[in-house]
């Protein structure tokens, strides 16, 4: 039995196509975190089991909540802005169906799947965006999501195998959506780094930003993705700059607060 898990918030423009692409699953679970559009209604109309959460613990914890709701032997995690291609659907069904593999062939406990992503109408095949393998199919009980606010991933007990086929990924409706996500993710990442005691400096902020551009545009051959590749590299560099600049300000604020508390404590002493 295959369970598909999806976390959502205001995904009415994506959820129908996403659900249609996984219609072969035995169970589809949608865990929504406060949509104000028609996401939940559309999902319910298309046969998904819709659950609701009243808080937002971060991507990793939220996906683990959805995972805990699954009842199937196998779990496929998919985002609302992703689609399972027919080729990938056949490969998934072969894995989860005992008779789908050649006789005597044991199925691995987890599989990683490539993603082909679209950016402003262009399929990005370089820039570190392809093949962009993600572990998404696994036996229930053999894997969990990392307990982080952003950039969560599946950690499996055994090395994942590669599954044939790929997801189609539509992460941004337009460039404004990318900028909004970069701003939100950079804040979450800065908070996580601050909580872990990470520090930075002005040269560090600039250095991380410059290296991000070089890595994406030159090392990962983003220049082969045309003008869109250059824009993606610059935007990623800006995201790195924002992330470390926000960390610097968080650390500065914490030092100021601690210094003020020490000064106040000394003044109160007789």
C-alpha geometry: globular
CATH topology (level 3) name of the largest domain: Spore Coat Polysaccharide Biosynthesis Protein SpsA, Chain A
The CATH superfamily of the largest domain is known as: Spore Coat Polysaccharide Biosynthesis Protein SpsA, Chain A
Largest sheet: 9 strands, mixed
CATH architecture of the largest domain: Alpha-Beta Complex
Low-confidence stretches: none
For this structure, what is the CATH class of the largest domain? Alpha Beta
State mean pLDDT (0 to 100 scale).
93
Q: Give the C-alpha Rg.
A: 21 Å
Descriptors for this entry?
7 helices; nine-stranded mixed sheet; two-stranded antiparallel sheet; globular; Spore Coat Polysaccharide Biosynthesis Protein SpsA, Chain A; single chain; 2 domains; 270 residues; alpha/beta
At a glance:
With 270 residues, the protein is α/β, with parallel strands linked by helices. Helix content is 44%, strand content 21%.
Topology of this structure?
Blueprint lengths: L1 E7 L6 H7 L5 E6 L6 H7 L3 E4 L6 H11 L4 E4 L4 E3 L1 H11 L13 E10 L2 E3 L9 E6 L3 E3 L8 E3 L4 E9 L5 H21 L6 H18 L6 H43 L2
Parallel strand pairs: 1-2, 1-4, 2-3, 6-11
Antiparallel strand pairs: 4-8, 5-11, 6-7, 6-8, 9-10
Helix pairs in contact: 5-7, 6-7
What does this structure look like?
The strands form two sheets. Strands 1, 2, 3, 4, 5, 6, 7, 8 and 11 form a nine-stranded mixed β-sheet that branches. Strands 9-10 form a two-stranded antiparallel sheet. It folds into two domains: 2-169, Spore Coat Polysaccharide Biosynthesis Protein SpsA, Chain A (Alpha-Beta Complex), CATH 3.90.550; 175-263. α5 (175-195) runs parallel beside α7 (226-268) and α6 (202-219) runs antiparallel to α7. It has helices at residues 15-21, 39-45, 59-69, 86-96, 175-195, 202-219, 226-268, and strands spanning 2-8, 27-32, 49-52, 74-77, 82-84, 110-119, 122-124, 134-139, 143-145, 154-156, 161-169. The longest helix has 43 residues, at 226-268. It has 270 residues and is α/β, with parallel strands linked by helices.
